[in-house]
Amino acid sequence: MIVYNKLIGKKLKQDVFNANGVLLFVAGTVLSQSDVDALEGHRIYDVSVEEMEESFEEAAVTTEKQIGKLVPSEELAEHYLDMLNRTKGLFELVTANYTPPLAQFSDSFFPLLDQVMKETGVFHQIYLIEGCDDYTYRHSINVGILSSLIAKLIKRPQEEIVRIGQAGLLHDIGKMLIPDDILTKPGSLTPVEFALMKAHTVHGYEMIMKMEGADRMHADCALNHHERLDGSGYPHGKKGAEIPLESQIVAIADIFDAICSDRVYKTKTSPFEAAKVLWKAACKGELNAEIATKFIHYVTSFYIGGRALLNCGDIVDVIMIYPDEPMNPLVRRGGEYLDLRHHRSLWIEKMLA
Question: Taking the complete model, does pTM exceed 0.70, yes or no?
Answer without folding.
Answer: yes
